[in-house]
């Protein structure tokens, strides 16, 4: 049974990750086209994004593994044969419990460390690619206006170091009102935390035209900030959100709310912390819940079984989403309680279902549906 759980789990994980990757390709198509990313870089970026989706995929795959295993056993009458041989349903619990526990440990690692590792590397890789693109855009001796609201000219530039010489920048962004900056030297610097590229200019002058007058201001250092959202479309690369932080970072904000930028940010952090615990333990809860559920649908085809299991997970995730929205809105129960309600509800259903199934008191839903369809067909044929 444990081997069958593992094989179905691997197949489910591969299928679900593949589907999500296809969706991400469509979502980030502007990013890939804008930065001219190759196949190797694309695969690397998707590898960094996978931990974020594993938090949801692993519980789904765990439930599917246990559900399809017991559905096959019940449909092939293996459960009946085991009961006839004196083996109760409770004696079959160790395999799904151990499997669900291992999946819980794996999801806990993803929740505590994997998500932050993936997002940090994803942001760093995108920033490096965007910085490389910005350096490529700054061709020596050419007036470059491919960056919105900026026209940049450099007599010479180094792609390796990002150093610029004899730089002219015309900045027409709203906050500056339109200025022309001339500097003998400059440098391109990237900032991963802020999600921006900076053009740092040294010992130059700023020319600002106001009607018929031109004002000149000298400077030792002047910084032109370029948000990556202007270069990279289809992905958020601004300040890090709670969903992309490590558990340690979330706890730091929890202890010191002054680190957060707004009350909304604090509420999202308060929701994210219990979510990082609730989702991993959903593996073992949904795994045990899948046992009596599969027995209730004895005789159902495997394809329909997949749809049924996904439907039950959708119910679970809908309840979790409602709790998350309620917590982020600041109303209702505290997130530390509300986010555990779906786990508690499905745990109760799992225990009750196991008890009724062991006592053979459950209703065969598949047989009941088939009976209703046949009766409806006979009535329709008689008319």
UniProtKB/TrEMBL annotation:
At the top level, the lineage of the source is Bacteria
Biological process (GO), any one: lipopolysaccharide transport
GO cellular component term, pick one: ATP-binding cassette (ABC) transporter complex
Membrane-spanning segments: 7-26, 46-71, 92-117, 277-297, 304-320, 340-358
Q: Does the keyword Zinc-finger apply?
A: no
PANTHER family reported in the protein's UniProt record: SLR0882 PROTEIN-RELATED, YJGP_YJGQ FAMILY PERMEASE
Q: What is this protein called?
A: Permease
Identify the species of origin: Halodesulfovibrio spirochaetisodalis
